[in-house]
Amino acid sequence: MDPVEVAAVPDAGPGPAWQNKCPWGAPNTTSISCSLADVMSEQLAKELQLEEENAAFPEVVAVAEGPFITGENIDTSSDLMLAQMLQMEFDREYDAQLRREEKKINGDSKVSISFENYRKVHPYDSDSSEDEVDWQDTPHDPYRADKPTPTPRRGFIGKGKDITTKHDEVVCGRKNTARMENFAPEFQVGDGIGMDLKLSNQVFNALKQHAYSEERRSARLHEKKEHSTAEKAVDPKTRLLLYKMVNAGMLETITGCISTGKESVVFHAYGGRSATEDKVIPPECAIKVFKTTLNEFKNRDKYIKDDYRFKDRFSKLNPRKIIRMWAEKEMHNLTRMQNAGIPCPQVVILKKHVLVMSFIGQDQVPAPKLKDVTLSSEDMKKAYYQILNMMQQLYKECNLVHADLSEYNMLWHDGKVWLIDVSQSVEPTHPHGLEFLFRDCRNVSQFFQKGGVAEALNERELFNAISGLNITAENEVDFQAEIEALEKMNEDHVQNLGKKLSMFSSNGDPPIYDE
Ligand code: ADP
Ligand code: MN
């Protein structure tokens, strides 16, 4: 024994009455509940042993060592096992009861009510990918059990061998049992207090962790089901984001859904008031919600993975963050276009995977897509020249290739064409940038040639007109081969020198864009 520590025991002379009375009951006369004592005989043995030790070396145990129940000095693995088994048993009984009630309610009815969501014992699902996403988002790793935190040495009562600290195993055990009642309300803990159950700190912590992860697992399973049944509706987290925008007064009302695509859902909303003076919220807004179901985005990797603006970040991100990046990309690209004076939605705000922009249309009616309007030949020609001009601006001034340009992503409003849907747009030096541009040119030129615009350039002429390149190949196959060769050359150059070739800009300088 360390003599210094023994000497540290305060003078336990006759003190005030409250010091002699244990506030949590009478620990010395504890009668151990027999049925539980039978079950937890090890626990009993340990307690008896400790009592003996207390009698022999009361001071040291009580004060000098501080909290004597820690993860290190007491082996409670069998207690934990027992507690977990009891919990499991309890959960099973609960589920069995649920099943009985379910059966009683449903009887022979063809339409039945399922209590599935209320079950406690869930089959473990092997699909852990969601879990990975989850824990990357949380500041704490939920798989690491809480370390038992030592409590400061304060608060002891009694004297000599009767000293009782708040670390007293029995008292502490009872307190832990009572604290168990504070677990999530859905977590059935049974009548531990009634049974006079005493849980050691380690068992308590382990159970707490178990309750916590069970709660999360239940929520996840539930959420998964919600996703699969209500695929098109926005998930609760997005709903909360939208709700906050309305609550803050930024949006007046969200009126309804304009479009549900594979990768996004677009809503119409009436604009509210801005928090800052310098920003004006348009009277009508479009809210683009990028879908958080990950599947659809997997095949879009190639747009973003090779985009050097996002290169460093891509590899480190989890799928949820990648989806936010799509929204971010759309915002940046729209801002570039806006600054160049190209007709397109104006960005209002970006929050995670939700992008709010001005609404193209009026009175909740979105402007029609170019594919859905019948234009006079005059307007058709006008639209063609406007698009030719916009594609050039996009390339030269914004340093962008739309990469999904077609009559589906151009709206006709106010006698002109508006470009939308630019989350996948890339810079021309993107490893596939020129191929994307060629595809855009093909869509545009085919649409206007079919639409009767005699002046419309063919796809190769259009490509050269926009890129300023002079690819002379006569047929499409050779043309594309040259495009790919150029892309390869650029990539090699990047690999070797760490920077892009300047060949893409018309004046020989790499395009510089200041956002
Ligand atoms: P995606 O095609 O990837 O689902 P879009 O950005 O093309 O996403 O939006 C889908 C549809 O929503 C568009 O075709 C258009 O009809 C409508 N829409 C999108 N943004 C706006 C906007 N700012 N104003 C009006 N309608 C819009
Ligand atoms: Mn679209």
Automatic annotation (TrEMBL):
MF (Gene Ontology): ATP binding; metal ion binding; protein serine/threonine kinase activity
Keyword field: Antiviral defense, ATP-binding, Cytoplasm, Immunity, Innate immunity, Kinase, Magnesium, Metal-binding, Nucleotide-binding, Phosphoprotein, Ribosome biogenesis, Serine/threonine-protein kinase, Transferase
Cell compartment(s), UniProt: Cytoplasm
Pfam families recorded: RIO1
Main localization of the protein described in the UniProt heading: cytoplasm
GO CC terms of this entry: cytoplasm
Catalytic activities: L-threonyl-[protein] + ATP = O-phospho-L-threonyl-[protein] + ADP + H(+); L-seryl-[protein] + ATP = O-phospho-L-seryl-[protein] + ADP + H(+)
Basic and acidic residues compositional bias, start-end: 137-147
SUPFAM superfamilies in the record: Protein kinase-like (PK-like) (SSF56112)
Region spans: Disordered: 122-160
Enzyme class, first EC level, given as a word: transferase
Family label: Belongs to the protein kinase superfamily. RIO-type Ser/Thr kinase family.
Subunit record text: Interacts with CASP10. Interacts with IRF3; RIOK3 probably mediates the interaction of TBK1 with IRF3. Associated with 40S pre-ribosomal particles.
Designated name of the protein: Serine/threonine-protein kinase RIO3
Native species: Bucorvus abyssinicus
